[in-house]
Amino acid sequence: MTSRPAEQLAETFVELADMMAREYDLDGFLRLLVNRSVQLLDVPAAGVLIVGHGVVASHERLIPVLGHDVSPLADSARDGEVVAVPDVDAATAWPGFADDARGAGFASVHVLPLRRRGETVGALALFRDGTGEADVRLAKAVADIAAVTIMQARALRQADELAGQLQHALDSRVIIEQAKGVLAERLGLGMGAAFTALRGYARSHNTRVAELASAIVDGRFDTNRLRR
Fold first, then answer.
1. Which of 71, 157, 180, 189 could connect to 97 by a Cys-Cys bridge, CB 3.0–4.6 Å?
2. Coil vs helix vs strand at 128
3. Domain total in the chain
């Protein structure tokens, strides 16, 4: 990586975006995020909490620290606000977190929400060996990049899932219409009566209508079984 922060930030943005564009690998993305945060922001360790997903850390010794339900990360992810802990010895609001952070060798932590347009998906925590406030201007840019990337990837994934569901529904509708035609011809029924027979048999035999319709169209089901 280059020595200039702006170029480092640009490279980080491209790398993070590229990972989520290639495949929705959230854990891989989060590992890359914390590792790049350590390099770019010159901190000894970083961790991230994603709501409904879990935590990822740059170092194994950080996992117990991040695992607390009552912690600066949990507060930041819930409230969408920055949480500064310049001295973990004075962090009386999160005693368990403070004890584990101190035990892992950290004296302070600064947590930034992963937030975009009123929605917070998690929080990024930067751990330091010394006490005091941290300069988080660059860290905020990293957090914003991560939030945007995660939200865009989720939106695309949801769109793909919805498209798949709609396609499945359409395919099922086509199969059902074909099965109605087969039943109407073989059993001498109108299309409405054919569907009533199809649906009634499926319900009475605890079978999905689309599955029964597919078996009828494929010839795997004896339509005479639907005769009254």
1. 71
2. strand
3. 2
